[in-house]
Write a structure and sequence with these properties.
Blueprint (H helix, E strand, L loop, with lengths): L5 H11 L3 E5 L3 H14 L3 E6 L8 H13 L5 E8 L2 H10 L3 E4 L6 H17 L3 E6 L19 H11 L3 E4 L16 H10 L4 E3 L7 H9 L2 E6 L1 H14 L5 H23 L13
Parallel strand pairs: 1-2, 1-8, 2-3, 3-4, 4-5, 5-6, 6-7, 7-8
Helix pairs in contact: 2-3, 2-10, 3-4, 5-6, 6-7, 9-10
Length: about 280
């Protein structure tokens, strides 16, 4: 296959009742590991990086690598700019060739979030890209630098937001949080069910690291189609590398990072039931 719009992947996932992992990457090895996992399991894949991570992985360097990996993959891969905060970086990602962007205006009051989301969505559509946005506020923060208060998404506001912005995917807050959970996640399945019954577009779950397989499956059954995973991959890489150290040479370390990233991606793809969704004869989802 090749680089595709995220909307295509999520549309197929919705029609067939499964979830798709959106895996955050920070270097070439993690990109390679995620694609390796997707190709081995014949699963669609979303590669992503958040704006707050660019201080570690400059967009001008990692962005083209993500797009190149997607273009050369044998399964459908969307390349997504996650938690975009500024027009400058959203435009840069789109110019590089990202097929999807998320504008995160969840910290704004509803009306300003709608206004700013519509502005960023208009820019993305100039490039034919998929648009995701967020209503409510997921706890924590993407890079762990602040501990944002969790604000459960209102069903009425979600309906208004989706209608007014005409986005392609909606991230909601139902008790999920970025980073490491401080206890057992208490997800509001009742609120998810309410929102799903009122909104046609695919729903997105941020903060997927630490949620149980049972809860993932229930979320998927109630309309979640894109599930973000970052911390679990980063932690798996660190744990595996620390276990195998010391390395005899750089390239054995390089391969260990790839393998650790692939291992975590495969584990989540199995939980999300996206394995085998890409048919060999067509290479299409």
């Amino acid at each position: 296959m090749t680089l595709v719009k995220m909307k295509e992947i999520l549309t197929h996932a919705k029609a067939n009742g499964y979830g798709v992992g959106a895996f955050s990457v920070a270097n070439l090895e993690m990109i390679m590991g995620a694609v390796r996992a997707a190709e081995e399991l014949r699963s669609p894949l979303i590669l992503q990086i958040a704006e707050v991570r660019l201080k570690h992985s400059p967009l001008s360097i990692i962005g083209p690598a993500m797009v190149a990996a997607a273009t050369n993959a044998s399964v459908p891969v969307a390349v997504h700019f996650d938690h975009g905060l500024t027009e400058e970086k959203i435009r840069e990602a789109l110019e590089i060739g990202f097929s999807s962007i998320m504008y995160d205006g969840s910290h704004h009051p509803l009306e300003k979030n709608i206004t700013e989301t519509k502005k960023m969505a208009a820019i993305a559509r100039e490039y034919g890209a998929t648009v995701e946005a967020e209503i409510g506020q997921v706890g924590g923060s993407e890079d762990g630098s602040v501990d944002l208060e969790m604000l459960i998404t209102s069903t009425e506001q979600a309906v208004q937001f989706a209608a007014d912005t005409e986005i392609d995917a909606l991230a909601i807050a139902i008790g999920n949080a970025h980073g490491v959970y401080k206890g057992e996640p208490q997800l509001r399945f009742d609120r998810l069910q309410e929102i799903n019954s009122e909104i046609e577009i695919p729903l997105v779950l941020h903060g997927g690291s630490g949620i149980s397989e049972t809860n993932f499956r229930q979320c998927i059954s109630l309309g979640i189609r894109k599930i973000n995973v970052a911390t679990a991959t980063f932690n798996n890489v660190v744990n595996m590398v620390n276990t195998e150290a010391p390395f005899k040479d750089y390239f054995s370390y390089h391969e260990s990072v790839i393998a650790a990233a692939a291992e975590n991606v495969k584990r989540h793809m199995e939980m999300f039931q996206s394995v085998g969704r890409v048919k060999e004869e067509t290479l299409n989802v």
